[in-house]
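Long-time lurker. I teach an intro course on protein structure, and each term I like to show students one example going from raw sequence to a predicted 3D structure in token notation. This year I'd like something fresh instead of my usual example. Would anyone be willing to generate the tokens for the chain below so I can use it in lecture? Attribution to the forum is fine with me.
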Amino acid sequence: MTPNSRMPVWPLLLALLLAGCSNATYYAQAINGHFAVMRAAVPIDELIGDPASDALLKRQLADVQAIREFASRELALPDNGSYRSYADLGRPYAVWNVFAAPELSLDGKRWCLLMVGCVNYRGYYQRQDAERLAAQLRQEGYDTFVGGVPAYSTLGYFDDPVLNTFLRLGTQEVARTVFHELAHQLLFVEGDTVFNESFATAVEREGMRRWLASHATAETRAAFATQQARKAAVMALMRDYRRKFAALYASDLSASEQRHGKAELFAALRRDYADLKTSWGGYSGYDPFFADDLNNAKLVSLALYSEWLPAFERLLDDEQHDLPRFYQRVARLAALDSDARRELLQRTVAATGESTQAAIIAGPQPTAGALRVAASACGGCP
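-- Reply from a regular --
Happy to contribute to a lecture. Here you go:
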């Protein structure tokens, strides 16, 4: 895999290294980590054509090729060199992300980076580096969460490879990941993590609906629908409790009273999750998230990928699931300033009989300053 010739990569990397002493170490590990991924990448055609390649790997990579072609042909996602090579990193995750939030707040800590803007996580290629930062933040009084991430996007700067970290999870996970990450290459708003991730998740879900309709058995589609129903139930539960936590932290209660209320809310959340598990017949796939270390940082991490998902799915419905029209509409929304964008998304979520389509269509066209398309490297996307 080679750098995308359309992008001035080396000047950007040099600028990152010179951005300041406080960030130099972080940028260095990010650059070194990514180039290690690049060096490990081998074209998929080459691996499939190699008689020495593992037979199972060949079958998996053939599925990848079908998914990659489907993404551009059927979902109007970028047709470039991404996901046409494969890299085995020899580890279970590509990066580890650190999330942090104050003890009595859901305002996640943000880190500001060149080109990307401010994001609510910090990614590391070595887990020990992520754990070291998390330990430091805990000493400063933050709730923290370190989560392993199987894939990330460079938003078109490089031809991102398929990684063993998500290939090992099966064909459906490969499809979900490819659709999600290519959506980031299509549209990315600097500094608005929740917008970016919710948009990519909406594209991913639409892509999976179409992929399964044409490439899966009825049993597989039913199993996936069950999985999605469970995920939707967890997301709804978490949205409900984020509202409860936000109300608690915004109250006039003393810090001691808020700490007591926080403990009670987490206990109630675990009880409600246990009820969900019972309704699922004991399915335990979400147990690690609801383990004893459940805290504000975990609430923040989950919100990044789902907060505006209902709004984007409403917009997709409004466009009769015509993806190019949906992308244009989202681009107009992305061109708004952050406050206006958030207000319209809130109205879209809350809308019942009244559509917000006219308001969004009437918005300004995207400008280079407001909308960053394939503009920079970003953190991982669970």
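Some talking points for your students: The first helix runs from residue 9 to 17. Confidence is low (pLDDT under 50) at residues 1-19, 352-382.
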